[in-house]
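Incident review: delayed structure delivery

Summary: a single-chain prediction request sat in the queue longer than the usual turnaround. Root cause was a stuck worker, restarted by the on-call engineer. No data loss occurred. The affected request and its eventual output are reproduced below so the record is complete for anyone auditing the incident later.

Affected input:
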Amino acid sequence: MIFSKLANVIRPSVSAIAILILNAFLIAAIYWTLFSLPWMAFLSGVLVAAILAEATRVSRAEWRLLRRTAQLSALKDKFDQESRLRKNAEEVAAEIRPRAHLIDEVMPTMVAFVDSEGKFRYHNRAFRNWLHLRAEQVDGRHVNEILGEKVYHEIAPYVRQALDGHMVKYERTQTMPSGAVFKLAVEHLPQLDDGGQAVGFYMVSDDITAPDDVMAHPDAHPGTASQALFVDSFSEHLTGREDAGAEIVSAIEQNKFRLFSQQIVPLAATRGSADCQEVLVRLAEEEEGMMPPGAFFPLAEKHGLMAKLDRWVVQHVAEWVAPKVQKNDWRGGSVLFINVSEATIEDRGFPDYLEVILLEHGVPGALLCFEISCSDLTVQGGKAVEFARRVKQQGCRIALSGFGRDKVMFDQIRGFQADYLKIDGNVILNILRDPVQLAKVVAINEVAKKIGVKTIAEFVENDQIKSKLEEVGTDFAQGFGVALPASLGA
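Output delivered after worker restart:
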């Protein structure tokens, strides 16, 4: 060990020592040859050659050192880049974890992922509850094994289409062991790799069985029945007892709800316009991680409290914005979007309540835009049109959300006199990989411009989607790729 260390210390000096010894030898030779000119010339040439050889060796060593330094620098840059990517991935994972928990544990919609070999690689609780199976009984098993040969034979064409990269929608019936027959609405959403090839698909299923049919088979629990169980179980989680209606009323009266907002930003087509905000309502415990955002809505609907909650939101939004209006501190053109429930659409007293609130706080109606879903417009029909007419009399605006998901005729929209169309997020999420969805967005934008309606894209998750929306002429964008929800006014 000692000799090895000594050799490592001496090795760099060996060449220099050798040259010094050679110089001494040459000088001695010149001296002993009595300075003979031929000998001096020969020995000088040997000396020059030795010096050049050493210089070449040193130059080569320096070049190797520079090359290794450059390689180390490149490796360091690559490591720094990978560290940043890992940190970003961890931050994104932390952001989506609550949403993933919502899908896994709470949401009544059945979701499963099937890989390219037809085997289940992911499944949420609702899916497993439907099948009465544990997670280990589903993991890695083929669709044929889990759903049965009869069902698999029925859906096999749709499975092939999904694995070819096509989004598929269909309806089917399923007979349970008890003899109950359920009707399911199913979607296959392909998952594509960087090369555009399908590596599997998400199977999303909803029970659309008529309520009367479900009641005829009380032993079955998916779909509508599972949603009722979800509401009941959530009631217990929220209040510790089955009757949660009084607790929701108490939360409203004691201001336990909190208002949040998410920015709606203008794109290239409307650049220069002010940002708008969609108002979101949360129960205080939600922001402490105790429950998913908005999870109390099924509870409020079950107990007939949505209209009361909508009035609470309107009142507190008006209270919040009034001082800004009085101080001329409100951005011109900015609008606050407020979702209204089916119960509020049916509430004939709401427009009168709205008028009183606006007058009391001195808030112009043009600052508020009420969102009505396309499904509510289809179901409510004349009631939704009358609601829109009366709130527009107060100067307020109307937005139609979820547009493009259901079949709503543009003539119906024109008669409805909407100011904004919010293009459904499920359409927006697929515009980069599905030409049909992109064509749908282009068509909606073109027709909306002809009838004088602004378009807002929902679920804008990244800059690539945002750029494509700017390219096709969408007016506004909203989603986690644009801005995360924050406390109202933050």
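Verification: The first strand starts at residue 110 and ends at 115.
Action items: add queue-age alerting; document worker restart procedure.
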